[in-house]
Hints:
heterodimer; A: alpha/beta; Rossmann fold; 5-stranded parallel sheet; 4-stranded parallel sheet; B: alpha/beta; 3-stranded antiparallel sheet; 28% helix; globular
Amino acid sequence: MSGAIRHLLSMADLDRDDIDRLLNLTESFAEVSERQIPKVPALRGKTIAWLFYEDSTRTRLSFETAAKRLSADTMNFSVGSSSVNKGESLRDTVETIAAMGVDGIVVRHRGAGAPHRITNWTDACVVNAGDGWHQHPTQSLLDIYTATRHLGSLEGRRVAIVGDIKHSRVARSNAIGFARMGADVTFVAPRTLLPASLEGWPVKVTHDLDEVIEDLDICYLLRMQRERQDDAVVPTLREFHEEYGLTTARADRLSPGSLIMHPGPMNRGVEISGEVADRPNAVITEQVTNGIAVRMAVLYLLLGSGLDLVEERTQVA
Amino acid sequence: MAERERRLTASPTGAVFQARTRVMSADDVGRAIRRMAHEILERNSGADDLIVIGLQTGGVELARHLVDDLSEIEGREVPVGSLDATMHRDDFGLRPVMPEALTDIPGDPTGKVVVLVDDVLYTGRTVRAALDAIHAYGRPKAIQLAVMVDRGHRELPIRPDFVGKNLPTRHDELVDVHSDGVDLGDVS
């Protein structure tokens, strides 16, 4: 990717320099959040629309906080109570929002690739806040930022992503993201929770968490999606916890200085034991805090930095 | 800061600063800092409630030298910090604007006298942004401005309280301030 980034759709679009630039920018915005008045006028006059076709409280709140700290105006297109229920197509919805003159659209959609489609229908910058099982790039960026704050460079670091890989856009984003930063990524899951094919993915695969646990720098647990229990992907949640959960006994075997991460919301007692989630090396709430700074950096880079102006070389004192 | 910023961001072609005239020697700069330190203490009747804040990036080193002198003269530590006012600039959308360095404000500035320090005062827009930014951290009793070089061409009603040297310049010239001297030159 070149200097100017127009949209953030997938971690696959970002090279290591892009990620480094976003991490540096995140550092500046993390400082803004610590001020007595945590607000800067950087996106004053810009309008951002939230277009969430799937339920999301945490991600939407995080984006909303980020936008407000940058002084952007936000508008919420709540799908539940809108024209979508009256049968409006995604394209018509996007064109309607675009016609109102928005500068950015943050979209979550159950269809993989929906954010990419949207870029064809609007001049606004599009940020993918999760599309189906495909990608969730801001989650990956905040995970990388959190990890580098504790571990420094991720070059050669060993990361296990554990649990429901198959249904997880977080797993797919982070596999790419961590690998771009030079980390060594392993998927840990039963066959029923792995995608049909992992060809071309920069990851190793194992079905045995105990085999890798002692070597890890990061143990990244995914939410077990209880609503998918009907598919009978695991025999019981208790058995899943015994085999693939981060139990107290397993957490004790993690090396000192290693991190426990989780994208939230957690199922205590399923993918992670309740006690382990509160240990000092579990940085789960810090991930949430960092999410705001990362999303500020993303929104600023796309909407405010004016990097697309580099070519014009405008000279202003 | 304004000087440095334009060199960094307005010249993606890699234009280089070329010094033409030496305006101040290292000793001149040292003496100017010493004098400004005395002026600051005289104006504020000592160093009580004083916080010195260098503007990123050009003012930071200068602020540190200034605080060394202030602390030595008063015989006690004067707090020093740095401020990146990029996010408060008024030229978003006119050129690429990226934060350059971190902000570090030592303590709550509410009720204190903040001395902002920059290397060169030119249009005054960086200082305007800094005045805005500092209020996000608290409400100082007063804000004063110290600069090594005032080169004129103000575009806003802003004036410095303490000046190292007044230097008449043309718009197309550039002033380069280091602790080892000040040069006037061109960008080519």
